[in-house]
Amino acid sequence: MSVWRLITREIAYRKLDFALGVLAMFVAVGSLVAVMTLLRAHNNALAAMNEVKEQETIEMMDLAEDDYRKLMKEMGYNLVILNKEEDLTEFFANGFATKFMPYEFVTRLVNTRLYTVQHLLPQLYRQIEWPEQDG
User: Fold this and answer.
1) Where would I find the H helices in the chain?
2) Residues 70 and 84 both lie in one domain
3) CA 121 from chain center: how many Å?
4) Among 3, 23, 24, 94, which lies 20 to 30 A Cα-Cα from 116?
5) Distance between CA atoms of 46 and 49, rounded to whole angstroms?
6) Which range has highest mean pLDDT (32-36, 99-103, 121-125)?
7) What b/e readout covers 70-106, taking b as 16+ CB neighbours within 10 angstroms?
8) How far apart are CA 44 and CA 29, in angstroms?
């Protein structure tokens, strides 16, 4: 008797056991395929949701950055760049700088593309005597 003949006779003798075994195997493979398909679909849906949320976050951050820029502009200027020869004691005592800076320095500062420096305002101050005001 060959092995295949023994197998077929065993299957014929235990038909219900064999059918239940084959059914269990199909259920296991089907469950595995279903779970893998559902996980792949979930990953695709999650990736799409993440892209939407990322785009929304970028838009919100752009709006917040623009709002902060406007707020900082309304608050006034918070950085003063002086000539290196300027005496700070004299600057704070007088309220204005006595040394001038060349215009090329501003051009060079603008060309550095610093995102934190967004609005440059040159100021030219000098204290003068106003005789009509004193009298």
Assistant:
1) 3-13, 15-75, 88-94, 103-111, 131-134
2) no
3) 30
4) 94
5) 5
6) 32-36
7) eeeeeeeeeeeeeeeebeeeebeeeeebeeeeeeeee
8) 23
Gap between the Cα atoms of 35 and 29, Å rounded: 10
The 10s digit of each residue's pLDDT in 37-90 is 999 999 999 999 999 999 999 999 999 988 887 887 777 666 788 888 888 998
> To the nearest whole percent, how much of the chain has pLDDT over 70?
91
Three-state DSSP at 82 gives coil
67, 85: one domain: no
Residue that finishes a domain, picked among 74, 91, 118? 74
Burial environment of residue 11 by CB neighbours within 10 A (0 to 12, 13 to 18, 19 or more): middle
Range of the domain at 114: 77-128
